[in-house]
């Protein structure tokens, strides 16, 4: 393929992603049908998962998984494996979001009430027994775990070497979530740790790992170093953009409340940058006199610096692509994807 | 093997179970070492899982998985698979317990504080930010999910047909948990549903499914019908005993508070039996005037009936063994295991 055929690379990806959507919908519909036959209530946890999947996420992880496979020259015979894997990644992500919203006490997700919020409201409206919060969060805990189990069922046929990558990715997600929560609770300022959490929690599993999984399914471990560099750089850019959206973004576009990161005392990279540079911010976030308004006022300079850092990271991601053994169409397409991720509005 | 060799069957099982313990300990130690190198805090979720594994559960599920394999004549070449699978089942169970204790607001497990209780206390003692309950439950959510991921990593090499059984088992656990919680919240009295929940949530995954997994690894699907009958009967007996211990048991022996099932408005089979027979109990549990003391006073007759039902179930389990194509030593050993499960004190 030549440079002029870029649209074909994208078209190939979209065609496989269409199959990913059908795989997800088919699997979830069959599960729902099965459990409703046991008891009508059986629909609740399946619908919690399906509702979030259908609420229109960015499908970033499936997109990078499928791109990794196609860019690596994956063969048609292995296409079903990459479809399963990409669908599985989306379900892993869905389960993590359902749990994450409980951890963060976040009430909105993708523009609709979070699972725990909606189920607590149902509990109250129905006049059921026990504590509504415990019930709602209970449904969220079980639905999140169910999404994870569904993901594992979808990737049943992955070969062992790919499963190892998969297992590492899943472990990292939980550990990243935990360290993120721990750092926020303790109020520690450790730039290195915060950077690691950002890389581990979001960057690595959003881009780098999915790309590597796709390349591994295609039998191209030789692409790992280039994809790692591209993925780590772009992953950090992804997370930095997330931080910016979380503080300065538009709530409607984001589909979740903005400003919540600050209210939650989240030690984002944005905040770490500000704390490293500005003594007053450092004092505000490390003492007991956290003041969201004043912190926000002092973040203007950091915002510019973070934008610069994003530019550098995108450049580094593109450089990694230059050195990789890829055809030109895919090199260009992955470059376009880098821009889309780093400069998105939600 | 002849009947006189029963101890050898047990010895063979214990030898494999010893390897299961080493597999669990080895895996968890390696994980801890890995994450502590990233950050000392990384030990927390791993320790939450390890602590519960090490607190000495009954290892019922590994025991039945290994017994299913050995009774089916599993070969030495496949032993590692059954060790992995049995270790994985124990971790699945561990993860479910960690989540279950949050769902039930249970503060004690296996004689030690539940994960969420201990972590909330740490949060308070350390003077950390945010709500202690959310932090403690957050650690429990993530640790439970981590246990599930570890389980999947352990069973990486299971062949597809065994993985399908595995996936069904895991899905059933979550669904059983959800329906159990939903029925308690709604206060519905549906004997069929409660029986199904008991079978699904506990019986099936404690005995029937582990046995079948072991037999499947040994390549003996022909044993499935007999193991299913044995397992379903014994599984119900297991759950009924659980109900009795939960209401009448000795708190020290049980390692968790007894009486909690009633306080939690849990629709146990014991309660369903009483409600079906006793109009007053039916009124007490379906209205808004739930009175734990009075309900407890009226459960004497039901207790006797449940003991009878357990006897019948054990007899049915033994009959199923008679018809199975097993050698005598294993038939006898599985009979002994039935007694141990049905007449245990914790």
List keywords for this structure.
homodimer, 346 residues, mainly alpha, 16 helices, 2 strands, 77% helix
Architecture overview:
Two copies of one chain form a homodimer. With 346 residues, chain A is mainly α. Chain A has helices at residues 6-38, 43-54, 60-71, 79-104, 115-126, 132-154, 160-186, 191-217, 224-248, 251-254, 260-263, 269-277, 279-286, 292-297, 300-323, 328-342; strands spanning 108-109, 112-113. Helices cover 77% and strands 1% of the residues of chain A. In chain A, strand 1 (108-109) and strand 2 (112-113) form a beta hairpin. Chain A is flat.
Strand content of chain A: under 5%
Oligomer: homodimer
Low-confidence stretches of chain A: none
Largest interface: chains, residues each: A-B, 57 and 58 residues
In angstroms, what is the radius of gyration of chain A?
Answer: 21 Å
Summarize the structure.
Chain A is an all-alpha fold and 346 residues long.
Q: What is the topology?
A:
The structure is a homodimer of 346-residue chains.
Chain A: H1 6-38, H2 43-54, H3 60-71, H4 79-104, E1 108-109, E2 112-113, H5 115-126, H6 132-154, H7 160-186, H8 191-217, H9 224-248, H10 251-254, H11 260-263, H12 269-277, H13 279-286, H14 292-297, H15 300-323, H16 328-342
Antiparallel strand pairs in A: 1-2
